[in-house]
């Protein structure tokens, strides 16, 4: 994941499926960032030829295509990102078919929960084979680069939330989490503390995210605009141990503010699962207190 590469491109997005609040929030972000045109090129769905949205005070029509073959060639060549809003079972086949038709993709985001673990691993393989910068998810609210790219619900789905989070002004703090709710909370905490984001990533709450936390950490280290990292972790998995290895190896030198949630799980005879598929300690080393 090269943040400078992502920052240097004009992001154009095609969504697989429709989710009106998320799509409208991306258009609000574009307008508030001073863009003259929306980043959403089209929507793949059935039953209609367009959907109505607002770009500032102006009502616009976003074209809807009932199949991949119906999408014009110039749209396929222009699109750099996909936002998959389809169901968990449809995520892998729809992404696989989409990638075949769009030659210049840099990556995408998968919103659906309940994606089978085998499918999530296959998505990681697709990302590697196509040299994508990233795929966030499954179960991800997306990726945010202030003033450049909002791919998903990250930062909020209402214009006032985006303004409160200072989501349009680029800064120096990178924010990561496997929790969608907490990544948005931390973005707001960073803004209320007088700082602005360099970028933010929600990996997704599933056990096998396509973009790993360590990959995002290295991206922050390599990004010249990022000066510090804020990370919200949970019980379950071994990501934080990989963080420590990277720090000890000298591969990550920037300051990190980190919080690990879930110490209360030690009070239970059997470790409970905390919402996400990944947020459950299968061994002592996966516990929040041990981390």
**Strand element count:** 13
The protein's oligomeric status is: single chain
Fraction in helix: 25-40%
Radius of gyration: 19 Å
Strand order in space, largest sheet: 3-4-2-1-5-6-7
Largest sheet: 7 strands, mixed
Distance between the termini: 26 Å
User: Spans with pLDDT under 50 lasting ≥5 residues?
Assistant: none
Instruction: Note the overall shape.
Output: globular
Could you explain the architecture of this structure?
With 291 residues, this protein is α/β, with parallel strands linked by helices. Helix content is 31%, strand content 22%. The strands form two sheets. The chain has a seven-stranded mixed sheet, with helices on both faces. A six-stranded mixed sheet has the order 9-8-11-10-12-13, sandwiched between helices. Helix 2 links the parallel strand 1 and strand 2. Helix 4 (88-101) runs parallel beside helix 5 (117-129). The mean pLDDT is 93.
Output the keywords:
291 residues, alpha/beta, seven-stranded mixed sheet, globular
What's this model, at a glance?
With 291 residues, the protein is α/β, with parallel strands linked by helices. The protein has helices spanning 3-8, 20-32, 73-78, 88-101, 117-129, 159-164, 180-192, 213-222, 239-248, and strands spanning 13-16, 40-44, 50-55, 58-65, 81-84, 107-110, 134-136, 143-145, 149-151, 173-177, 197-202, 228-234, 256-261. Helix content is 31%, strand content 22%.
Topology:
Elements (H helix, E strand, L loop, with lengths): L2 H6 L4 E4 L3 H13 L7 E5 L5 E6 L2 E8 L7 H6 L2 E4 L3 H14 L5 E4 L6 H13 L4 E3 L6 E3 L3 E3 L7 H6 L8 E5 L2 H13 L4 E6 L10 H10 L5 E7 L4 H10 L7 E6 L30
Parallel strand pairs: 1-2, 1-5, 2-4, 5-6, 6-7, 10-11, 10-12, 12-13
Antiparallel strand pairs: 3-4, 8-9, 8-11
């Amino acid at each position: 994941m090269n943040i400078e590469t992502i920052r240097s491109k004009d992001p154009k997005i095609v969504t697989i499926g429709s989710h009106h609040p998320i799509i409208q929030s991306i258009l609000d972000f574009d307008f508030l960032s001073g863009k003259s045109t929306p980043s959403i090129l089209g929507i793949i769905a059935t039953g209609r030829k367009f959907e109505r949205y607002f770009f500032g005070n102006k009502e616009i029509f976003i074209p809807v295509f009932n199949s991949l073959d119906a999408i014009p060639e110039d749209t396929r060549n222009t699109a750099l990102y996909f936002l998959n809003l389809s169901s968990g079972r449809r995520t892998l086949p729809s992404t696989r078919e989409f990638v075949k038709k769009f030659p210049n993709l840099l990556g995408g985001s998968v919103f659906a929960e309940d994606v089978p673990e085998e499918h999530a691993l296959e998505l990681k393989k697709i990302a590697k084979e196509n040299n994508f910068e990233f795929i966030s998810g499954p179960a991800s609210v997306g990726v945010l680069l202030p003033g450049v790219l909002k791919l998903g619900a990250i930062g909020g789905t209402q214009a006032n939330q985006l303004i409160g989070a200072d989501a349009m002004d680029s800064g120096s703090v990178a924010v990561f989490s496997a929790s969608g709710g907490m990544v948005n909370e931390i973005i707001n905490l960073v803004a209320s503390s007088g700082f602005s984001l360099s970028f933010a990533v929600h990996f997704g709450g599933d056990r096998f995210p396509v973009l790993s936390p360590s990959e995002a950490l290295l991206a922050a280290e390599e990004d010249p605009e990022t000066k510090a990292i804020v990370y919200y972790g949970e019980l379950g998995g071994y990501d934080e141990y990989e963080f420590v290895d990277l720090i000890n190896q000298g591969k990550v030198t920037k300051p990190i503010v980190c919080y690990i949630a879930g110490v209360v799980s030690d009070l239970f005879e059997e470790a409970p699962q905390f919402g996400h598929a990944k947020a459950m300690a299968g061994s002592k080393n996966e516990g929040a207190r041990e981390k």
